Amino acid sequence: MFPEAPKFRPLFEGARKEVGDLCLKIDVVLDKLRMDFVAYENKHKESFEELQEGVEDLTENFDRLDSRVASVSETAAEIGDQLKFMMYFNETSGYVGEEPSLFFDDDRVAEAAAVAQKLRAIAEDSISGVHGVPAHTALNGNGGLEVAAKNLQAYCNELENRLLGKFDAASQKGDLWTMRNCAIILNQFNKGGSVMQRYIASRPMFMDLEVMSKDAHAILGTEEGIAQVDDLMNSLASVYKEIAACVESLFKSYLEDYAEFELTSLNQLHKAKVQTLLLSWKLKYQKTLELKSCPLADISQSRRNSILHPFSPVSPQRRNSAMHSYAPISVSVVEEFVEWNEEAVTRCKLLTLKEPPGILATNMKAIFTCLLDQVSQYVTEGLERAIEALKEAAALRERFMFNSNTNRKVVSAMAVAAEAASSAGESSFRAFMAAIQSATTNMTMLQRFFNASVSQSLLAQEGAHAACCDAIASAIADAENAALRGLQGSLDTVLAEVERLLAAEQKATDYKLLDESLTPEPTTACSSVITFVTRMAEVTNGALDGLNREAFLIQLGYGLYKSLIQNWKRFAFNPSGGLRLKRDVSEYAAFARRFMTPAVDEKFVLFGILIELRDDYKKAKVANILSSMNT
């Protein structure tokens, strides 16, 4: 129908070859530009990090300087005040100047007592010439501090008597708060000896002479003589037994509600610790946002957001979720929980020592259940936070996802944002693996504590031990369910990044080499995928163990195998391209042999053997092999 068509065939073939060559050159130029851009970004990032470290060091130095200046200023002011006070007490008559209000203010008695004691010591040391203070140091024309020492001693005596009177009045009223405050201040005078003596003397057992006489008569014997040693010991034992019984009755009402008080205390400690952690995480997150908001001279605002903070613009919901990513599961926190519970268990055993075994078991069960609830909540919520970080990374990845059909200009424009999403995905993967490792350690710690400190005491009450074991199993099941969901999200994250690397770096010319005499090297996509998956496998090996690790790596290996088969089906091959595919398969098989299970290794080995056994790859009919593969 078109007799002239053969004349134009050479022209079209030449044009097609030139277009192919131009495409290859363009790919080379784009690769070079991309590499240059990545190098430029890395250099910029290093410069920014160095600048950030410098600013942090400078800020820290300024803080130290400011703290030092404030300390010196405060010390100077304190010395000045003490010199003024010393001059006041060293005057024999008619002090010239304003009288210090400190020594006449009832609200500052504690401070006045401390200052007076310190000044008195200095004055006495000055007189005796000890502690490096020269004798007869003159503050005025009096020649020394003898007057100051005398006046300060008189003031201290007057203040001590005034506080003792206040203590006595508070003691009669039963005002424990005032008694406590007076006792704290009086402890500065002869180490509190006067207040202790005053308090003991005011007790009825030392004031009632008749009671004291009866006790002495009961212990020492009759009026005619001293009792025998055996009688004396029996009398003492009777008295001590009676006292132990004036003591048990005093605390009996409190011990009845002991477990309630203990549980309230443990819950308050737990709540305060969690609030402190949340505040710390919030401050860390805000600091991160501030650092990422610092201007970079050569990068536009929109590009900076895409590089440094892929969540921009940040909604309140996403901000909260991102903040939670800074809240990892900590082993030290659970160690603190267990330490508090261990102290509570020790108190429980001591305070219920004389109670029936069933009471001890009941209290021990309640105390351990409190710890179990705290640890279970902390671990499960920590895993959920790590899962949310995986979901955030997945949502970010969806925004910048592209495949082999995406226009190259669009791919180039999305490259930076896609790499930022990739970095977020890898970070969330690492964070979840760290969370699952900490969760495992914490639950193991909890079981060991139960077996070592709690288990034996529960056997006295029927069903208590079994109930605690069931509760532990339930807590572990909750953590395992969260872990399984997170592992699935982690697997999706790794495989999605594999597909992104294959789509971004596997070129049409990878398996259609122009120079068929060259020894085939692994493709860039192959090297990138193996490097990435190796990092993820190493993280997995550190976080999981036993059957859990084996099951995860099997799923990862099968997913990698399927993604590779689907990727290769998109390409056409020439004979040299078939050899290069064989080289890629060998590289993947070597990776699987190193990290994966035998079942995964076998799939890659069989695929390599299948290519080698068939002659199709020599005739550039590799597609026939790939189309027959069952993924």
Automatic annotation (TrEMBL):
It comes from Physcomitrium patens. Belongs to the SEC10 family. Residues 111-217, 244-612 form the Exocyst complex component Sec10-like alpha-helical bundle domain. GO terms for biological process: exocytosis. It comes from the Eukaryota. Pfam families: Sec10_HB (PF07393), Sec10_N (PF20667). InterPro entries: Sec10-like (IPR009976), Sec10_HB (IPR048627), Sec10_N (IPR048625). This is Exocyst complex component Sec10.
